[in-house]
Structure formats: C-alpha cells, structure tokens
Amino acid sequence: MPDVCHRCGGRVYPVERVDVGALFHRRCFRCKICGLQLSLRTFNWDQSNNPPDIYCQAHMPRHVGCIDSEAVGIKTAIGAPKRGVALSDQVSNYDWSMYQLQAFATFVVVVVVVVVVVVVVVQFF
C-alpha cells in the first residue's frame, strides 16, 4: 500500500515526505486552523482529536486539566537564575563553572597550608 498523506489523503513520495508519526506532504504540513506552514520545530501534535492533527502554537487546542509549559510556568523556571551561582558569575563572561571555582579554591587552601607547615618546620630547625 502506498504512503498516504494524513491531511489530503494523496500519495506521498519520499522527496516530499514529512514523517511525524503520520505522513504529510511538505505542502500539507500546515496548521489545521490558520494554514501556517510548519516545521519539525514549530508543529504541535494534538492526539486527543480523532484523527489526530497538527497545529501552530497559537492554535493548539488547550484541554481542561492539561499541564503544559504555559500552565505551570515552566518557561519562567527555565529562565530563573541557577542555584548556587553568584549573580556576578552569571553576568560576567568567564567560562569558569562552579566546580572549577571550588577546585581552584581548594588548591589555594592546600598551597597555603603547605607554606605554613614549611615555615613552621624551618623555624624549629
């Protein structure tokens, strides 16, 4: 059986094929409501419809009880400052991660301790 477009029902050839779990012609890979041309990054798949269909972000149906990035503020949480990182570290352009800073601080402490021990030993002899 030939591959059939989910939207128009026409045969889909490999060169014009978009496969997102269902096949579409490139020209048929559009928002069901406004007709906006979609890409693999911009489409939204609503599987609650029968048959399922694709939409742009603006026209994706919202269902009661649906938890998405808009409903629970995930976008806000993603953009929030990371815990344990000083604001100056976020603003500056240094490539030092917190791990590197902690490792460097530990190294400095070890060097200071070694210097103190050497000074004390030299004073006794």
UniProtKB/TrEMBL annotation:
GO terms for molecular function: metal ion binding. The chain crosses the membrane at residues 103-124. The lineage of its organism: Eukaryota, Metazoa, Spiralia, Lophotrochozoa, Mollusca. This is LIM domain containing protein. Residues 3-66 form the LIM zinc-binding domain. InterPro entries: Znf_LIM. Keywords: LIM domain, Membrane, Metal-binding, Transmembrane, Transmembrane helix, Zinc. It comes from the Eukaryota. The keyword Membrane applies. It holds the Pfam family LIM. Gene3D superfamilies: Cysteine Rich Protein. SMART domains: LIM. The keyword Metal-binding applies.
